[in-house]
Amino acid sequence: MIFMRKALTIAGSDSGGGAGIEADLKTFASFGVHGLVAITSVTAQNTREVRAIYDISPDVVAKQIEAVADDIGVDAAKTGMLSNAEIIKAVAKTVEKYGFPLVVDPVMIAKSGAPLLREDAVEALIEYILPIATLVTPNIPEAEKLSGIEIKCREDAKRAAKIIVKELGAGAVIVKGGHLKGHEAIDVLYYNGKFREYRAPFVKGCTHGTGCSFSAAITANLAKGKSLEEAIGKAKEFITMGIYYGIKIGHGHCPVNQNAWRDIPAEKWRIYEELMILGETLTKLNDAYLLYALPAPYTRSEKDICVLRRGEIKFGAPEELASVLMDRMRKEPDIRSALFVKGDVRFGKSPRDILKSLGII
Ligand SMILES: Nc1ncnc2c1ncn2[C@@H]1O[C@H](COP(=O)(O)OP(=O)(O)OP(=O)(O)O)[C@@H](O)[C@H]1O
Ligand SMILES: [Mg+2]
User: Fold this and answer.
1) How far apart are CA 232 and CA 208, in angstroms?
2) Of 62, 218, 25, 202, which Cα lies nearest the Cα of 136?
3) Are residue 282 and residue 243 in the same domain, yes or no?
């Protein structure tokens, strides 16, 4: 048996697996936290559109929260799509009984443009949910709606943040800058009377589910006992990576890849392990370069390719050799390894495969 922290998401389901409950659970898993759910609404959704919304009864939403909190315990929770005022009131009343840290992602509109919160429910969100929030994570349009001011630049975002904390009673707020296009995605935190900016390069990739995954990542890290500022820092790194390695599916806004955060370090370790075992054998092939790349979707440059040469193992293969392997991987994504020896090159799915085919092992 192992010990695990528990994080709860109170949100809607996205049948396309890109946002909502589905994104939250994948994010929790990526941070090694056990995920709990209270589903507020079922949406029939894909990367292009929301086709139907079916709200769960407020009583059943509350019962889901109670069921997990009474038995399993909740180290931190987040809210996503709350859909209507009745669900909002039920969630606020139930969460208040337990007092766990609560991250509120004030979801109002889906990436595809569909409304996910009824117009009349915004007031309820402000009245019941914001005062019990440890942190609120609005994007620019949401921060405008909550604060009542227009946001055109970072100074406006700071003014809105102050209003959300000082006048609406949230514990802290981070206004996300994904909608203010520029070289950097800059989010502004207002916490304990101070501002702090979180910056990352603005990357091309997939953005369906960014808001859900970002707030879920903060929640997972709070559940693990990190401070609010540390939790946001980790979430920022996580979301930038998730967008960059986004999953190319569907015909609309493709989803964030929550697995990249865990997959890449895990794959790196597997590569080191295999090359360490083979290192001995390869000393026989004196001038050989043995290359081993991360799985194809994660191999973007020579930095993602490990090289074994004269017993030394390191990521960052010589550029000319890396480009030969990457060319081959583009045609055959299962290929991940290349052995360069005496002017000859052999490809394989793994170094072990190549060495076996040569009769070396
Ligand atoms: N293209 C991008 N490159 C890097 N970071 C980004 C990009 N787009 C958004 N972000 C970051 O992702 C996080 C989520 O912000 P975003 O503004 O996308 O939320 P959102 O609008 O609520 O998303 P959603 O539409 O999924 O609800 C923030 O940290 C933001 O700065
Ligand atoms: Mg959002």
Assistant:
1) 20
2) 218
3) no
- Last residue of some domain: 208, 234, 258? 258
Model pLDDT for residues 235-287, shown as the tens digit of each residue: 999 999 999 999 999 999 999 999 999 999 999 999 999 999 888 777 777 78
Indicate if 209 belongs to the active site.
Answer: yes
Q: Is residue 1 a part of any domain in this protein?
A: no
Tell me if 92 is assigned to some domain.
yes
Residue 92: which CATH number?
3.40.1190.20
Question: DSSP string of 113-161?
Answer: S-B-B-TTHHHHIIIIIGGG-SEE---HHHHHHHH-S--SSHHHHHHHH
Same domain, 125 and 213: yes
Q: Is 35 a catalytic residue?
A: no
Is residue 39 in a domain?
Answer: yes
Q: Which atom of ligand 1 is nearest to the CA of 235?
A: 29
Ligand 1 lining (C-beta closer than 6 Å) = 19, 111, 139, 176-179, 185, 187, 200, 202-203, 207, 209-212, 214, 236, 239-240, 243
Range of 92's domain?
A: 6-258
**Residue 301 resides in a domain:** yes
Domain boundary among 215, 230, 258: 258
Residue nearest to atom 16 of ligand 1 (CA): 178
Task: Give me the number of domains the chain comprises.
Answer: 2
Q: What is the pTM of this model?
A: 0.96
Those residues whose beta carbon sits under 5 angstroms from the ion ligand 2 are 211
How far, in Å, CA of 359 to CA of 361, rounded? 6
- pLDDT-based confidence at residue 116 (cuts at 50, 70, 90): confident
Mean pLDDT along residues 117-132: 93
Angle between helices 260-282 and 228-244 (to 10 degrees): 70
- Indicate whether 248 and 299 sit together in one domain: no
For 3-30, the pLDDT digits (tens) are 999 999 999 999 999 999 999 999 999 9
Residue pair 110/19 in contact by the 8 Å Cβ criterion: yes
Tell me the per-residue pLDDT of 74-111, one tens digit each, with 9 for 90 and over: 999 999 999 999 999 999 999 999 999 999 999 998 77
Query: What local confidence, expressed as pLDDT, does residue 349 receive?
Result: 97
